[in-house]
Amino acid sequence: MVLMLLCSQMEELYSLDRETLSVLRPVYGLIFLFKWKQEKDPRPPESDYHGKVFFANQVINNACATQAILSVLLNCPHIELGQQLTDFKSFTADFPPDLKGLAIGNSESIRQAHNSFSPPQPIVPDEARSADKDDEAYHFISYVPVDGALYELDGLKPGPIKIADCTEDDWLDKAVPAITERTERYSKSEIRFNLMAVIKNRKDAYNEDMEALQKLQDKIQLRMSEEADSKGASSMDTDDLPAGQDALQQKLHHVQEELSRVQQQLAQEIEKQQDWHNENIRRKHNYIPFLFNFLKILADKKLLEPLIQKARQPKEALQ
Fold this sequence. Notes:
By secondary structure, this protein is an alpha+beta fold.
């Protein structure tokens, strides 16, 4: 989101194993996309959550992704929200869920952020077709740890669903079975799922790791110089560095290898985020003028009609 925070980002998940999730820590919340269908949920929604969990009903069509992101951002104390979202959270703090949902739709800054990722619609049909029972609908929900409990936040439900008690360290372990159970329940008829994590900005995380490693590298090199000057005399410092030139050299080699690895990860992350930026530009670009002029040129060169006739031929005739 435009008003979303440079300190966080979305990361698509292809696995729920512990190793994959541990690499992405800290994870602020999970967002699950699935094909929605009408069904009864036997789980009772929480009633005593006001003032603790930000929960909004979805009252706007086609905004469930934005609402799922907000459900994570506005429930995570570790994310610096910025002035606009801070004001919004404060303003809606005492609103019931339906009014919170309306407030999301009426927020100009949130609407602009939502629309900034929408592709252009230069051609609008004269009559909008209403959705029918055969149309496919997809829905986003969030899994967020709040105040010692893991909640499923679904704007189509009357309230938050408490999944389990948890801590900051084990909430992902509690979320994985809940998501796995949902995917297995639908897997016989539907395989289109998507899971995303809201995490700390990886560029910031890698830069912090590099800074810490560079400080450690300087510290080791200084210790090696001190020991060389004192001809091997052990230092009185009570840190965790080993004694002796050989041990220090081995430690330095390990730190330099780790520093090189983090530098490569940072370069890959910068390239990936640039790809995201370019993809979003292409997705939002209006290609209609280009296509119109391209077809006009083909027509002027008497090439368009043969292409149309060829496209209309049965596949058998083209073989």
